[in-house]
Amino acid sequence: MKLNRLFRITAFTAVVFAFIGCDEEFTEVGGEIINNPSNVEVREIEVNAYSQKINSIQTNNLTNYMLGVHSHPVYGESAASVVTQVTLSREDPQFGENIQLDSVVMTIPYFSTIAENTGDDEILYELDSIYGNESFKLSVYETSYFLNDLDPEVGFEDRQKYYSDQQDIVEQNIAGNPLFVEDEFKPSSLSYASYEIDAIGLNDTIVNTPALRIKLPTDYFKQKIIDKEGSEDLLNNSNFRNYLRSLLIKAEPNGTGGSQILLDFSGQNAAPKISMYYTKESGVEGETDRVRGSFDLNLTGNRFNTFKGELSADVLQEVDAQTSETGAENLYLKAQEGSMAVIELFPDAEELEAIRNEELLVNEADLTFYVNEDLLTAGDEPRRLYLYDLTNNTFLADYALDIGFNVANPDASLTTFSEGLAEDDNGKFYNIRITNHVSSIINEGAENVKLGLVIVPNINAVVVRGQQGSIAGSLMSATRNMPGLIDRIPAVNSLTPTGTILHGNMSGDEDKRLKLRIYYTNFN
Fold this sequence. Notes:
Blueprint: H1 5-13, H2 31-35, E1 41-46, E2 48-53, E3 65-72, E4 76-84, E5 87-88, E6 100-109, E7 112-117, E8 123-127, E9 130-131, E10 136-143, H3 167-171, E11 180-185, E12 192-197, E13 203-208, E14 211-216, H4 218-224, H5 237-243, E15 246-252, E16 260-263, E17 273-281, E18 290-298, E19 303-308, H6 313-321, E20 330-334, E21 339-344, H7 349-358, E22 361-370, E23 384-389, H8 397-401, E24 422-424, E25 427-433, H9 435-443, E26 451-456, E27 463-465, E28 471-474, E29 476-478, E30 488-490, E31 499-503, E32 515-521
Antiparallel strand pairs: 1-32, 2-21, 3-4, 3-16, 4-15, 4-19, 5-18, 6-14, 6-17, 7-8, 9-16, 10-11, 10-15, 12-13, 17-18, 20-31, 21-26, 22-25, 22-32, 23-26, 24-25, 27-28, 29-30
Pfam families: DUF4270
Protein name: DUF4270 domain-containing protein
Organism: Christiangramia sabulilitoris
């Protein structure tokens, strides 16, 4: 598994709103004590933390989408499928006379990096953002499920939201037989050659980076597209989207354990499309030669991810039993339609008031989440954990003030705020530093908001950023069928299937129990 370019694209191609400078809102603390660490004391404060199942997530606000099956040793098996619109690359197309459709190919790029360049015009690639290395069943269907741009339930004033749990209703609208079925589909890291038609009708051979590339039935597309030349259905894309409403690219388990991979729908490197290759009469009077032609259907417009699969019965029972009253022994984090954790700092209001009266200088405040390695003995470890203001659905001051933003290497980015997986004598852990947030609560009377903890594949992509890296807002997805508090979660939580189990505030292991650790100076 390697970090992919897709997340860099996600962070920078999202809609950018007016930026409000973070340095006007937040004040960084602790500069003096770093240079003179004498008189520093440490205090451990009890916190409250519990897991919460994620039932349904909005997934039509992403640039890229997951496809495939992932098997986790604790959380069970889950499948990610894609529902997408199709658009004409050219409205009211004219194909020519006496068309013979030779082949139809769907191509959706993967994310990949060069593994080796042999110097003999042969480049070997390695796939990025792939989880697992086995096969899964892949099918493609036409559906009559129409994807609205605007939401009719609110008078067509807001964008329509599509959710991860809507696959059943899409499948109820499948039209006809599958267009493709492969019982043992496995993503390939091989490059491939495509044959594009140049201006004079000759083949131009192009070598492309790895992609999902499958052949679709020519008979279907001859009847559905070629034979419809000149009709109202192909006159414009508005008509066409009602004529061919959507495709379901469906992943299902096949008993092998599967693999799940990120598809590049951004169009930054190569466009996701369905290419129809055909021959036609030359069009020159008196000539009998045939010339080649091609026409593309673009996989653009509305699309969304669907997720199928439930948490294992044991995990679901554990999560459902956890409450905000006592916290939990273990915190269950699973991306996509999985689970998250809610963190409550200073649950004892009287203790918080007493600390405020001490007027402490907070030099550093940490939450250290130890992995419960007794329960989690295998599986893909999440790259990063992300802590955010759950009450207001926004980033914390410490995220905004971390000067270690690294667009080229997200794994090494913003590590002052959120460190990657590390290990000490007590075991594996994730450390999140919330110095400014805690200082604001203690010294400035800021609201003690609830915090949300989720898995993210890229810490950079949880916010909207401008071209210079300035933060313009959080990238959040709506939820439904959830408790009132959790109405949004970070959108990129959908772009990885990984999971972990962390020691909570009720852990029986004192050394690994979740606490808020404050390093402070008391000048009183």
